Amino acid sequence: MRLITLFLVVLLLLIQHPLWLGKGGWLRAWDLDKQVAAAQKKNEELKARNAKLNSEVQDLKEGTGAVEERARYELGMIKENEIFIQVLEPNGKPAALKNNAENSAKPDDKQ
User: Most buried among 24, 71, 106, 109, by the most CB within 10 A?
Assistant: First the structure.
């Protein structure tokens, strides 16, 4: 009787092996499910980024607000009859001048 019980337990374990550890087993399915969830999360992040970029492109094409904002921030431009007030960091230059200085300090590739 013991031999039959032992044989049945071994047979049960052999039958369970493909279910848990085989090519289409539960562990593989669980791992693939985690990969799908990670890919979906990344897709959602990329969709949000694309929507933001698309709205910025539309604003640049159709409106002047974004162009004006970029000109003010990146180039330090002001409107006619406008008073310009700039707050400097305690030890630094204005942000627009820093960007221009960094860009002009880069060596040319055409030497």
Answer: 71
